[in-house]
Write a structure and sequence with these properties.
The chain is an alpha+beta fold. The chain is built from two helices and two strands; from the N terminus they run αββα.
Amino acid sequence: MNNIKNKHDAKDEGYFFGTAKVGEKGQVVIPKIARDTFDIKTGDTLVMVGDSSKGIYIVKSSALKEFALKTLAKSGILKDKRA
């Protein structure tokens, strides 16, 4: 199990950024330290995925796209034009 770290600890371990309340419209505010750590800017598109036992994950769509392209390129399904 990963140790929970704050922004100032080693990368790639895991972070705890605090809590957020759900507003009347279902909105939550991502803490500034989390936005800074993951370079989330106003207007960025985020993808929400979930697991019934582990919870909700929030991923920048650009990071998900990059992951998908690399995975497809490794599998030979898609040629990686950047390589």
